[in-house]
Every structure is written in structure tokens, then in C-alpha cells.
Write a structure and sequence with these properties.
The complex is a heterodimer of chains A (226) and B (582).
Chain A (H helix, E strand, L loop, with lengths): L6 H16 L10 H29 L8 H4 L2 E2 L4 E2 L2 H25 L3 H32 L13 H33 L8 H26 L1
Antiparallel strand pairs in A: 1-2
Chain B lengths: L6 H4 L8 H5 L5 H31 L9 H37 L7 H20 L30 H29 L12 H32 L10 E2 L2 E2 L7 H34 L7 H14 L15 H29 L8 H24 L1 H7 L3 H31 L5 H28 L17 H33 L68
Antiparallel strand pairs in B: 1-2
The chains are: A mainly alpha (226), B mainly alpha (582).
Bound molecules: protoporphyrin IX containing FE (HEM) and copper (II) ion.
Chain lengths: 226, 582
């Protein structure tokens, strides 16, 4: 016990290590270039979604007409009473599950198990596609059955439809792009395209995918629960 | 886990054989940089001509029939937006960033050459779209470069139908192009430096460029979001920014939106944007001054930290553009405080430039003239910035010509002087020929003195109360006749300065073919972009082996050394051991 360095010393070491790592020659982050780039891109993308969500909060707060009640609008009935938020709950579940299969794919990628990696990537992409499909269903229901439009709706503030379509649409584009990206990587894994270069690309695609899931959690909280 | 790769192992470069592959769909960072430079210069000339039109109207009101109020506002808008975004941002980051970052860091190319190529082509597309707005029905938007709604998308403003859509679409494309390029510049500077090139040995040019790029990556999202929302307001009749409003006697269908929200989003982008233009200029000018004064830059570490501090602070000052927007006065207090704080690191930089010159062995070469000119214009613009940063001083000055004078000194003239200085400095590196000195000096003096003739009177008429963005002042009671005299003389000076820029273009073309052949490393600089095995550098930059860096970038006039400069990659010797290592 007596010999173990105190917390202050450890912290100090950590700081000096950090500084020397960062200012070392060649590479600041000891990671694949693509991964460093993906992190920086995701930071930038975070600012995009933050701007969207802040804008949404602002128009919602300053709206002069009451805001529509989310749990009623997003309710779905299977024959019986409408269950609030049930579709969104399923969508969220699907997306979170896909994050799990993605993580497995990364794991098998580093073990160079091509079959399992590719399969898991395809499964992840399929979950993504399911998500987008359910989103399309939700949009159709809102537009056709409930008469919600970007420029107005029967329930209250017009900004409700506007921000809903804009933000979930932008997120949906991210998911669709991710599906294409994952499919491309999966095909590459199957064909052995990354045997020489290494399987970092699976992890990089995974970073993107987890990010898109994470953003959904925020959208979910701000749109459906608020 | 630890993935330590030699840059050489990590990257395979594409080696095209055809002319088109090498010079058009090129993945070579130097070619892409030149493509950016040419395109940015071309739109820059368009913007220059537009400013000439505005000046003609202001100097000779009513004489030129083809300039009506609508055309005037369209010229104002397109001039501003093109200069700031499509010219300066693209030139510094796409142009200088592409050419300098890999060469100065000792990399073979950008980290992702293919994406880098895409970046240029999307940028070109955005330029085409923004220029297309000159040809759509009713012409380009006349909303002012700040594009404030509701007026930007309401009938009665020029180009409220098609022009504004061209503008928002081209800005969106520009953000995409910038992101692809920007990820490259940052990743290259962070991850692909050669052996021995630690962050604290990087030339300040690279520091300025990558910090500006980081600002861009974090600020352009707000612009992207605001143009998306504005496009929706225009095309789908949503009401993000549009309150209930009546236009031309008719109530519009919009309701409940917030115009102030746009201003916040715009300036969250807009203020960092001014530093996106300023930081690369800071970095490049530091290197020019140090090289041409044969002296190490004063306070290198301070310079780096000042760049980082300015970058960080520039995200918390945006609402100083909105003092008169009607926001909460406590906001004004907060943003005035942060704005004045940002002057501290900025002043540190200015002191360090001056102290670098102090007792230096100053060579008044053309690049150096431009660098010293920059110090003057930048101090001038910085000081008027301090005026405007204070709420009570800004309220009467806001939206007058004083503001126009301020931002032209600080982000118009100053960065442009650095662009020119940089071109005179690095032209030999890319072409193997020197630019003509005599023409360069005429260009400098006309530009430098001319800008004072243009912008000093603007401060004056601004204090008298001349509002900005007015087509004509008419007979305004509180404006003395001298205002028109000032406007006339500004116009004449502006036309002369504009003509001087064509002299510069002539110099470029002439020197490209007839210029004196440049010796290797003509300015006897320490930085490694001059140390490539081929001169000018070829695709891949470094031949067989990457250079190894042994010292910082500022070993000038080291006592005892053979020459008055020691290149960064020269191996240590008795005089140079560890010297200058910070
Ligand atoms: C000490 C430094 C600075 C301070 C305190 C400062 C302060 C200000 C303030 C308060 C305004 C708003 C004036 C108004 O609209 O009423 C302003 C406008 C502006 N500043 Fe600065 N500034 C500084 C440096 C810079 C730099 C370095 C740049 C660019 C490189 C810049 C570019 C601009 C531009 C473009 C505008 C006008 C925007 C518009 O309304 O169209 N400023 N500045
Ligand atoms: Cu500002």
C-alpha cells in the first residue's frame, strides 16, 4: 500500500502522458486514419443534430398555439384501445438491437471470421432497413390518416409537423446511408477485400452506426417524450 | 491495439497515367489546391466586378441606368457571400490548405486523396449553382449576405423566388465540399506527419489552417441547418423563421416562427466564419514575417496557444452581431464581455509579429511587404472591433458604414493581403518561376494605400450616420454634402484598386511563361516544403523516403551556423543540436 503512488501523482502522470501523446511526432491518436477521421466527422455531425434540436426547442417554446400531444398522435391501435407510442417503442428497440449485432460484427471482424462478420453486418443492415420501413409507415399514417403536413396540422402548432418531418427525415437519411454503407462493407468482407488492409473499416462503420442510434435516442426523447 | 504505422505503409497513392487523371480528376493535393485556387480566383473576380458596380452607383448616384435598387441589392449580396465563402474560405483552406498541409507536415498526400478530389468537384458544383443564380428568373437574391428572413424569402425582395433557392442550395453543397476537404486537412495534420514533426514543431501556417478547419467543421453545421430550414420555409411553407406577416397588403400563410432563431444560427456560423478566414491568415503571415525578417517567430508557443484560444472563444461571441436585434440585454452583457476577452489572444499575436520584426534582418521582398501591410490593416480593423464590441457604442454604429469599414479592414483587406503575400511567396514552389518584382511592388502599394483611401472615409461617414446597404442617400437632412464627396473619392479609389488586381493577374500569367526561373528555396526558408527531392515537388512529394525532421520551423540566424537558416530536416550538428526545440 505504502508504495502505491497517490492519486495526485497518477493524475499528474496521466496529464503528462496525454500531453506527450498528443504532441508526439507522426500521430496524435494511435488509431487508424479512417477512424480518426470518422470521430471528427461525427463531432461535426453532432453539431448538425444539435442545431436541429435546438431550433426545434426554440420554435416549440415560442409557439403561440398549443403544441400537439405527442402520445395521442403517435398512438397505434391493434383492434382495441390505442396504445401510446407503441410503434416508436418497437422502432427504438429495433435500432438498439442493431447496435448489438453491429458490435458483434466488429468483434468477429477483428477475429477475421469473414462469414460471421458479413452475416452480422447484413443483419444489422436489415434491422436498419426495418427501421426506415417503419418510419415510412409512420409518416404515411401521419400524412394520410391524421392530416399532418409540414405547413400545418389539425392538432395545433404548425411547427410540429415541420420539425418532425425535417428532423426524423434527416435522421432517416442517415440510417439509409448507413444501410448502404454497411452493405458495401459486408460485401467487401465477404469477398475478402480487407484481408490485407485489416478490418478496421468494420469498426469505423460501427462507429457511424452507433452514432446514428445514439442520435435517435435524443430525437426520441425530445419528440415523443417531451 | 496500439496501431503505430509509418505513414508510408498506411497509404497507397493512385498513380494515373493519363493527362486527365493527372490534371483534371487528380488526387494529388497540389493539383487539387491549384484547382481550388483557380476557381476561387475566378469567382473572386466576379465579386470584385460586383463591388465596382456598387461603387459606381454610390459615387455617381443615378448616372448609371442599369443599376436600379434591385440590382444594387443583388450586387451587395452576391459580392459579400462570394467573397467570404466561395473566395476566401475556399482559397485559404481548399487552396493553401491543400498545397501546404501535406508538404509542410512531410506527408506524401492528404490522408484520403479520393475524398479530397470529391471535395473540389462538389465545391465547383456549389460555385456553378451560386453563379447560376445570375441567370434564373428575377436574378440572384438581394437579401444581403446575412440572408435574414422574413425579407429574404418574401415577395418584394429581389430574387425571393429562385435566387434565394440557388443560394441556399449552393451553401449546402459548399458545406458538403468543405466537410470532405476539412476532414482531410485535420486528419493529415494530426495523423500523417513525418518522423520528428511533433505538433509543437509544426509551422504556424499549418496550425492556423487546421484550427480554422476545425472551426469550419463545427460552425458550418449551423449554417447547413439554417439554410435547410429556410429552404423549407420557402418551398414547403413551413414557419420556422416566419412569423405571421403581411406582405404587399396580403396576409401570408406563415405563423409563429422566429426570425431571431435564424440570426442565432447564422451568427453561430458567422462569427467563427470570420476566424475561419482570419486564422489561416494569422498562421501564414507569421511564417512570412519570420522568413523574410530572418528571425525566429517571437513566442512560438504563445502563438500556438493564441490560435487555439481564439478558435475556442470564437464560438461564444456570436451575438455581438445581434445587439440591436431585440434580444435580452443580459445577453448583450455576456457577449460584450466574451468579445472583449477575445481581443487578448489577438493582441498577443500582434505584439509577437511586431517583436519578430524588431531588430530582425528585414528583407522588403514583395511577400514581406504584404505581410507588414497586413499588420497595419489588421490592427486598424481590430481596434474598431473593440468599439463595436461594446453594446452602447455599437447601438448607434450598428448597420452604418462604420461596420462596413471595420469588417473590410479586418476580414476583407487583411486576409487578402495575406493571400497575395502567400502567392508571391509560394508561386515559385508550384511553378518553378518567380513572380515579377516590379509589378508586385506596384500591386502592393496601390492595394495597400488604396484600401486606406477606400475604408478610412467609410468609418467617417459611418459615424455621420450613413446607413449601410442603402441604394442612395437621397436628401437626408442630417447628412452634410461632404458625404457625397467622400463617396465619390471612395469610388475613384476603389476603381484604381480594382484595376491593380488585374495587374496582379497579368503578373501571374506573364510569370508563368516568362518569369525568372526560381532557384531552389528562393527565400532561404527553413520549412520542409522547399526540401522536396524534385523541385517543384512531384506527385508523392518525397521521392523514395520521407524526410526526417530535427527541429522547429524557425531556425533563422542561429549564431555560429554556416547559413542564416537551418532547414527543419537538416541533421543535428555541433551548432544546431536540439536548438529551438520547444
Ligand atoms: C478584437 C476583435 C474584434 C471585435 C471586438 C469585433 C467586433 C465586432 C462587432 C461587435 C461587430 C458587429 C457590428 C454590428 O453589426 O453592429 C462586428 C462585425 C463584423 N466583424 Fe468584427 N470584431 C473583431 C474582429 C473581427 C475579425 C478578425 C473579423 C474577420 C476576420 C471580423 C469580421 C466582422 C464582420 C464580417 C462583421 C460584419 C458582419 C455583418 O453584419 O455583415 N471581425 N465585429
Ligand atoms: Cu463577430
Amino acid at each position: 500500500m505504502a508504495q502505491s503512488p497517490g492519486n495526485a501523482v497518477l493524475a499528474h502522470d496521466a496529464v503528462t502522458d496525454l500531453v506527450s501523446d498528443w504532441s508526439a511526432e507522426k500521430e496524435v491518436f494511435k488509431v487508424h486514419w479512417g477512424k480518426a477521421m470518422m470521430w471528427i466527422f461525427l463531432l461535426s455531425d453532432t453539431f448538425i443534430f444539435t442545431s436541429f434540436l435546438t431550433g426545434y426547442m426554440k420554435v416549440r417554446i415560442s409557439s403561440t398555439v398549443p403544441w400537439p400531444n405527442a402520445s395521442e398522435i403517435f398512438a397505434l391501435s391493434f383492434g382495441g384501445d390505442p396504445i401510446p407510442l407503441i410503434l416508436i417503442a418497437i422502432m427504438t428497440f429495433v435500432l438498439i438491437t442493431s447496435s448489438g449485432t453491429m458490435a458483434l460484427a466488429v468483434n468477429y471482424g477483428y477475429r477475421r471470421d469473414r462469414i460471421k462478420t458479413a452475416t452480422l453486418l447484413f443483419i444489422t443492415a436489415a434491422f436498419g432497413l426495418t427501421f426506415v420501413g417503419m418510419q415510412a409507415f409512420e409518416w404515411t399514417k401521419l400524412i394520410v390518416d391524421e392530416g399532418v403536413r409540414p405547413w400545418g396540422n389539425p392538432f395545433g402548432a404548425a411547427q410540429f409537423g415541420a420539425s418532425f418531418f425535417m428532423i426524423t427525415g434527416f435522421h432517416g437519411l442517415h440510417v439509409s446511408g448507413g444501410v448502404a454503407y454497411l452493405t458495401y462493407v459486408a460485401i467487401g468482407v465477404m469477398n475478402g477485400r480487407y484481408e490485407k488492409k485489416g478490418y478496421d473499416i468494420v469498426e469505423i462503420a460501427g462507429l457511424y452506426w452507433h452514432f446514428v442510434d445514439l442520435v435517435w435516442v435524443f430525437i426520441f426523447a425530445f419528440f415523443y417524450l417531451w | 491495439m496500439a496501431h503505430v504505422a509509418l505513414a508510408d505503409k498506411e497509404q497507397e497513392l493512385a498513380h494515373p497515367k493519363t493527362w486527365i487523371g493527372m490534371y483534371v480528376w487528380s488526387q494529388d493535393h497540389k493539383i487539387i489546391g491549384i484547382q481550388y485556387i483557380i476557381t476561387a480566383t475566378a469567382v473572386g473576380v466576379v465579386a470584385l466586378i460586383l463591388s465596382g458596380l456598387m461603387r459606381l452607383q454610390l459615387g455617381f448616384p443615378g448616372v448609371f441606368d442599369f443599376i436600379q435598387p434591385d440590382e444594387y441589392y443583388q450586387a451587395v449580396t452576391m459580392h459579400g457571400m462570394i467573397m467570404i465563402v466561395f473566395m476566401l474560405t475556399a482559397f485559404f483552406l481548399g487552396g493553401f490548405g491543400n498545397v501546404l498541409v501535406p508538404l509542410m507536415c512531410g506527408a506524401r498526400d492528404m490522408a484520403f486523396p479520393y475524398m479530397n478530389m470529391l471535395s473540389y468537384w462538389v465545391y465547383l458544383l456549389s460555385v456553378i449553382v451560386v453563379c447560376a443564380s445570375f441567370f434564373v428568373p428575377e436574378g440572384p437574391t438581394g437579401a444581403g449576405w446575412t440572408l435574414y428572413p422574413p425579407q429574404a424569402i418574401t415577395e418584394g425582395t429581389a430574387g425571393a423566388d429562385w435566387g434565394i433557392i440557388c443560394m441556399t442550395v449552393s451553401l449546402g453543397l459548399f458545406v458538403v465540399a468543405f466537410t470532405m476537404g476539412g476532414l482531410n486537412y485535420v486528419t493529415t495534420a494530426f495523423q500523417a506527419r513525418t518522423r520528428g514533426m511533433t505538433l509543437m514543431r509544426m509551422p504556424l501556417s499549418v496550425w492556423g489552417i487546421i484550427m480554422a478547419t476545425i472551426l469550419g467543421l463545427l460552425a458550418f453545421p449551423a449554417l447547413l441547418v439554417s439554410v435547410i430550414m429556410m429552404t423549407l420555409d420557402k418551398t414547403l411553407d413551413t414557419s420556422f423563421f416566419m412569423p405571421a406577416i403581411s406582405s404587399l397588403g396580403e396576409n401570408l400563410s406563415h405563423e409563429g416562427g422566429s426570425p431571431i432563431l435564424f440570426q442565432h444560427l447564422f451568427w453561430f456560423f458567422g462569427h467563427p466564419e470570420v476566424y475561419i478566414v482570419a486564422l489561416p491568415a494569422f498562421g501564414i503571415v507569421s511564417d512570412l514575417i519570420s522568413t523574410h525578417a530572418r528571425k525566429n517567430i517571437f513566442g512560438y508557443r504563445m502563438m500556438v496557444w493564441a490560435i487555439v484560444a481564439i478558435g475556442g472563444l470564437s464560438f461564444v461571441v456570436w451575438a455581438h452581431h445581434m445587439y440591436v436585434s431585440g434580444m435580452n440585454p443580459y445577453f448583450g452583457f455576456f457577449f460584450a464581455t466574451t468579445t472583449l476577452i477575445i481581443a487578448v489572444p489577438t493582441a498577443i499575436k500582434v505584439y509577437n509579429w511586431v517583436l519578430t520584426l524588431w531588430r530582425g534582418n528585414i528583407h522588403l521582398t514583395v511577400p514581406m511587404l504584404f505581410a507588414i501591410g497586413f499588420i497595419f490593416t489588421f490592427i486598424h480593423g481590430g481596434i474598431t472591433g473593440l468599439f463595436l464590441g461594446n453594446v452602447v457604442v455599437d447601438v448607434p454604429l450598428s448597420d452604418t458604414y462604420f461596420v462596413v469599414g471595420h469588417f473590410h479592414m479586418v476580414m476583407g483587406v487583411s486576409p487578402f493581403l495575406v493571400v497575395f503575400g502567400g502567392i508571391y511567396h509560394w508561386f515559385p514552389l508550384l511553378t518553378g518561376r518567380m513572380l515579377n518584382d516590379a509589378m508586385g511592388k506596384i500591386h502592393f502599394w496601390l492595394t495597400f494605400l488604396g484600401t486606406y483611401a477606400i475604408y478610412l472615409p467609410m468609418h467617417y461617414i459611418g459615424i455621420l450616420g450613413v446607413p449601410r446597404r442603402y441604394y442612395a442617400n437621397g436628401t437626408t437632412e442630417f447628412l452634410p454634402d461632404s458625404v457625397q464627396a467622400a463617396n465619390l473619392s471612395i469610388t475613384i479609389a476603389a476603381l484604381i484598386v480594382a484595376a491593380a488586381q488585374f495587374l496582379f493577374l497579368i503578373n501571374i500569367f506573364w510569370s508563368l511563361f516568362k518569369g525568372r526561373k526560381s532557384p531552389r528555396n528562393p527565400w532561404r526558408a527553413t520549412t520542409i516544403e522547399w526540401q522536396t527531392p524534385d523541385y517543384p515537388p512531384k506527385h508523392g512529394n518525397w521521392g523514395k523516403e520521407l524526410p526526417v525532421v530535427h527541429r522547429w520551423a524557425y531556425s533563422y540566424s542561429v549564431p555560429g551556423a554556416k547559413e542564416d537558416f537551418i532547414p527543419q530536416n537538416e541533421p543535428p550538428s555541433q551548432y544546431t543540436r536540439g536548438e529551438g526545440d520547444v
